[in-house]
TrEMBL record:
Lineage: Bacteria, Pseudomonadati, Spirochaetota, Spirochaetia, Winmispirales
Organism: Winmispira thermophila (strain ATCC 700085 / DSM 6578 / Z-1203)
Included range, full protein: 397 to 673 of 676
Full protein name: Diguanylate cyclase/phosphodiesterase
Regions annotated as coiled coil: none
Highest taxon listed in the record's lineage: Bacteria
EAL domain residues: 23-275
Length: 277
């Protein structure tokens, strides 16, 4: 502690330099990963109240040659800070669309596909054209694609109306992710073409015991109903949570209780097995 006080400046500047070097190394590593196809999309089923798989959320994984499977929280922030999120984000959209094309050929044509968008991607001038071209190349009706964004996106890009108008014109849906964890939620829902909200797992995990979480979730469902928004409850981990959410008439569920994110092949098998008469 004393050392830190005496040479505070050097202490901090040195660790900052180290941080910069590490980040540069990670960024190069990630650039290579993108080039060498070490990245992979996993698909987590979205399950309806009737028990049918209605779609999937695409979740990014990095199959690192030495470190094994790395979760997005470890590398998406690096991509966001370095601008690599632009090509990476377009890669995710392309891969998810290709997967959708394969699902259709497998006879699973009416599945929704949900893709996460980082706030920075709003500034990617190629994104809208990329979306349009990708959908048309794979013959995907735009209504089957949802982009999941967080309130951070609105907060950091106040002038992003244009971007959202263009998505709306194209018919691509917007889902508000991690709903309930941000700030002026209701304002955004009024101002932007939001079609669905995803109740953050921190609320779902409080079910069924925590009274506050029960009240918050009921309020969200009532609000969404009044506004004509679809609701997805995420992070559903056990049967009690699922049962209570069904009682509240929540319509779509996602979580380990149903299925963890799967490799594409496993996802296809899962959907086929579930829907086999
Ligand atoms: P998210 O969009 O909120 O995604 C849901 C996260 O919850 C995923 O973590 C998923 O594996 C996890 N999850 C699913 N079911 C359960 C459950 O029952 N319990 C718990 N505790 N967790 C559950 P994951 O895959 O590690 O992704 C973390 C975050 O990384 C995502 O949060 C999203 O913000 C970001 N992310 C993932 N893929 C992409 C991507 O392609 N692009 C961008 N920009 N961000 C991505
Ligand atoms: Ca998400
Ligand atoms: Ca979420
Ligand atoms: Ca999140």
């Amino acid at each position: 502690h004393a050392r830190r006080e005496r040479s505070g400046f050097r202490f901090y500047s040195q660790s900052m330099l180290q941080g910069a070097a590490t980040r540069l190394r990670r960024m190069r590593d990630l650039q290579r990963a993108l080039r060498e196809e070490e990245l992979e999309l996993y698909y987590q089923p979205l399950v309806s109240i009737e028990g049918v798989v209605v779609g999937a959320e695409a979740l990014l994984r990095w199959r690192h040659p030495r470190e094994g499977l790395i979760l997005p929280s470890e590398f998406v922030p690096i991509a966001e800070d370095t601008g690599l999120i632009f090509p990476l984000g377009r890669w995710v959209i392309s891969r998810a669309a290709e997967a959708w094309g394969r699902w259709r050929r497998e006879g699973l044509s009416s599945l929704l596909i949900s893709v996460n968008l980082s706030p920075q991607q709003i500034k990617d001038v190629q994104l809208v054209d990329h979306l349009r071209e990708t959908l048309s190349r794979h013959g995907i009706p735009p209504g089957y694609l949802t982009l999941e964004i967080t309130e951070r996106t609105f907060l950091e890009h106040m002038g992003s109306r244009e971007f959202f108008s263009r998505l709306e014109e194209m018919g691509i849906g917007i889902a508000l992710d991690d709903f309930g964890t941000g700030y002026s939620t209701f304002q955004y829902i009024k101002q932007y073409p939001v079609k669905a909200i995803k109740i953050d797992k921190s609320f779902v995990q409080g079910l069924p015991a925590r009274g506050e979480d029960v009240a918050i979730i009921q309020a969200i469902l009532t609000l969404a109903d009044g506004l004509g928004l679809a609701v997805i409850a995420e992070g559903v981990e056990n049967e009690q949570q699922a049962l209570l959410l069904r009682t509240f008439n929540c319509q779509i569920f996602q979580g380990f209780f149903y299925k963890e994110p799967l490799r594409e092949e496993e996802f296809i098998q899962y959907v086929k097995a579930l829907h086999r008469p």
